[in-house]
Structures are given as structure tokens and as C-alpha cells.
Design brief:
This protein has 222 residues and is mainly alpha-helical. The protein is built from nine helices and no strands.
């Protein structure tokens, strides 16, 4: 049995492997030379897109759903993420920011290519990978290890707080905003009883945040 066949045969692996692969590549950014923070983001975006395409038929809940609720929640979370920036002590933000214009020049085509890649990746690739992992797998697994028996609309405090806490830790530099973000996205899943609205909300937040970063030079958010 090939690795791909093993992934498709395991509901747990097929939902966790894309995220773990993405996270591993993220951890390597900047570790393989200064430029690797940029080309590895490109690499993980391409790999992430390929993985999503490969496993899409095995994850029934990973379906985009365009709704006004998803858009509103996404905009609200963006407002929270930016609005809370000056209201809590910063941690984990030492070192050089992710800003290709510093390395390649303000008018560099390569710098713009990496910026566009990041916006596209964070808007179209990150949401399905993270929402499947956090809101579908982790939340339901905490509720019951036989997670496929747990409907997406199931509400319980323990999985809500555990999943949101893990999400906040994964976004440690902006953990207060990340905590509220996780609560909002999970609430949307519970409310709508599907994952697609949260994927849309996540994409909306990331798109607006990416545009804000470039417009305002707020590179600390990346």
C-alpha cells in the first residue's frame, strides 16, 4: 500500500497529514538560509495545494461554502486581529520580519512575486488545511476519539476550549486575537453545521490581513 493509499484509508491521517506537512515546512522557513523564509513559503503553498487536490475526495466536509455569515465573521476577525495589536504584550516576534522588500528591494519583481504568493497561499491554501485539522479533526476528536461519529454542529465546552487554546498557541505572537479567532470560526461551524463557511471566513480574514500588511507595511502580522 502506497503512502497516498494509507492516507486515504485513514480518516485521521488524511485530515492531519496535510497540516503536519505544512507545519513542518513552516518550521524550516529561515533555517535553510535567509532566503528560505520566502522560497519555502512558495514551496509549502505548492505542496499544500497539491495535497488538498489529492485528498479532496476523501474529506467530505472540506467544501467551500459562500455565505454572508462567513464573510461577516471573516471581516470581524480581521478587525479583531488588527484592532487588538496594541493592547497586549508582544511575544515571539524577535528577529527579522517576513518582508521580501527588505531583501530584494521595493521595486523588485521577485519581492512582489513572493508577496502575491503569500497572499494567495494564505487565502486559498491555508484555510482548508487548518479548518479541516482544527475545526473538523481536533475539535471532534477531543469530543470523541471516534470523531467521525461527532457531527460538525456538535457543541461542547471542552473541545471548544482545547481546540481554541491549541490554535492560540500555534499563533503565539498574536495569541489573544488568535484565541478569539478560533472561537469565532468554531462557532460558525457549530452554527452552520458545516465547515465551508469557516473556510470562507478564514480566507476572508487572511486576504484582508495580507492586503493590510502590504498597504500599511504591518509586516509583524506575517
Amino acid at each position: 500500500m502506497t503512502l497516498l493509499e494509507k492516507l486515504r484509508a485513514s480518516p485521521l491521517l488524511v485530515r492531519s497529514a496535510p497540516f503536519l506537512t505544512f507545519a513542518a515546512l513552516t518550521a524550516l522557513q529561515g533555517k535553510l538560509g535567509d532566503d528560505s523564509r520566502y522560497w519555502l513559503y512558495l514551496a509549502k503553498t505548492v505542496v499544500g495545494a497539491w495535497v488538498i487536490w489529492t485528498v479532496r475526495s476523501c474529506i467530505s466536509e472540506m467544501r467551500w461554502k459562500f455565505s454572508w455569515e462567513g464573510i461577516v465573521v471573516g471581516i470581524a476577525v480581521f478587525g479583531i486581529w488588527v484592532g487588538l495589536e496594541d493592547w497586549y504584550p508582544k511575544t515571539g516576534q524577535s528577529g527579522k520580519p517576513w518582508n521580501p522588500f527588505l531583501d530584494y528591494g521595493a521595486g523588485s519583481a521577485l519581492a512582489w512575486f513572493y508577496v502575491v504568493t503569500r497572499i494567495v497561499g494564505s487565502t486559498l491554501v491555508v484555510p482548508p488545511i487548518e479548518e479541516v485539522f482544527y475545526r473538523s479533526l481536533v475539535y471532534r476528536y477531543v469530543a470523541d476519539p471516534d470523531f467521525q461519529k461527532v457531527p460538525l454542529g456538535h457543541f461542547a465546552w471542552k473541545p471548544l476550549l482545547v481546540t481554541s487554546g491549541i490554535f492560540a498557541l500555534a499563533h503565539f505572537a498574536q495569541w489573544p486575537a488568535a484565541l478569539l479567532c478560533a472561537l469565532a470560526y468554531q462557532g460558525l461551524v457549530v452554527w452552520k453545521k458545516r465547515l465551508g463557511d469557516a473556510m470562507l471566513a478564514h480566507a476572508t480574514t487572511n486576504l484582508l490581513l495580507g492586503l493590510w500588511v502590504v498597504w500599511k507595511g504591518a509586516w509583524q502580522f506575517w
